Every structure is written in structure tokens, then in C-alpha cells.
Amino acid sequence: MTGWDPKADLHRYLKTARESLLWKLDGLSEYDIRRPHTPTGTNLLGLVKHLASVEFGYFGDTFGRSSGEPMPWFEDDAEPNADMWATPDESREQMIALYHRAWAHADATIEELPLDATGHVAWWPADSNTVSLHRILVHVIAETNRHAGHADIVRELIDGAAGRHNQDRLPNADDDSWWTDYRERLEQAARKAAENQPQGA
């Protein structure tokens, strides 16, 4: 196939996922980007902080290219899950800037190394911590898209905003009554299926 570049394809998917996640913060208050929306505390700015840390680790330390970026939330005395939320002293601007620096550091690794370049993930089990850049790209794309999906749901819970960055693929996106009816149809279908389920199943 002429012009096919596997690394460029993977890199493009990563860039798209990054932008999609950040887009979910647009137009929201400080409170809304920080407050927990699930019993386990999922919040938008925390997802940004976490994914910045992920990229610094996987595309930096794994390949012997440490960024030197201080990340106190990973120190031995840090509390569990400290990378999953922003403290009052960690501003939106700081966390977004951190993520942008992580992108730049990761992009340099991706551009400079071949897909078969070998690295070591120190926090993975010893029998599986030797990796290629290809594997790490796939891993981080999967993780970024997983958290972008979390952000999709959190943003919809906050103000009803839904959809993808620079793409409007929702049917009847501006018709609130259509969506109300649609959701009600789903609710009724779920209730009917539950009623039809045999006892004890």
C-alpha cells in the first residue's frame, strides 16, 4: 500500500484522543472540572493530570528519556490516587500545561525512535516489562481513549454536552425533545425486558 506509515497512523490516533479529552473541559467552571462524579471520584481535571503522568512515564522513563518533570503525586509518601485529582493549588492552567509538556516529550520519543525500539516499564512485572515503542503506543492510545470515554460521560452528566471533538455525529443533536423521547423508549425497553425475564434467572 503506497504511503502507509504505521507509526504516523498510531501517532495520529493518540493526538486525536488527547484533544478529545481536553475539549471536554471547555466552558466549565473550576468546580465542575474538579468535582467527583462517580463513587470512585472520577473528575475531568484529574483525568488530565493522570494522563499527563502516563505519557511522561511510558514515553519517557520507559525508553531512558526521563523528562525531569517533578511529579510529587508519585513520591513514596504520596497518598493513593494522588494523580487522579487536582489539589486547590494545582490550577487548570498548570494541569493543561503539564499535559502539553507531556505531549511534546512523548512526541519527541515517538518521532525519534523506530517502532521496534526497546524499552523497560519499571512498574510492570519483570516477566513482561520489556516492550517496544509499538506496544507502548498501542497501550497509551487505549488508555487515553478509555479515559476520554470517561470524560464523555462526566461532561454529559454536568451539562448535557455530548459528541466528539470537531465532529458532530449525534443524531438530532439540538432536539432536546427527541432525546427525551429516545431515553424514555430505552427506559421502557429495559423495564419490559426485566419483566419478561424468567424468575430466578
Provide tags for this entry.
globular, mainly alpha, 201 residues
Write the layout of secondary structure elements.
Blueprint: H1 6-23, H2 30-34, H3 44-59, H4 92-112, E1 118-120, E2 130-132, H5 133-159, H6 176-196
Antiparallel strand pairs: 1-2
Structure, described:
This protein has 201 residues and is mainly alpha-helical. Helices cover 54% and strands 3% of the residues. The chain has six helices and two strands; from the N terminus they run ααααββαα. A two-stranded antiparallel sheet has the order 1-2. α1 packs antiparallel against α4 and α3 runs antiparallel to α5. The chain is globular, with a radius of gyration of 20 Å.
- The 3D shape can be described as globular
Q: Order of strands across the widest beta sheet?
A: 1-2
Beta content = under 5%
Tally the beta strands. Answer: 2
Q: Gap between N and C termini, in Å?
A: 51 Å
Instruction: Outline the low-pLDDT stretches.
Output: none
Category by helix and strand content:
mainly alpha
Average pLDDT over all residues: 92
Range of helix content = 40-55%
The SSE string, one letter per element, is HHHHEEHH
Please tell me how large the radius of gyration is.
20 Å
Number of helices: 6
Largest sheet: 2 strands, antiparallel
Summarize the structure.
It is built from six helices and two strands. By secondary structure, it is an all-alpha fold. Strands 1-2 form a two-stranded antiparallel ribbon.
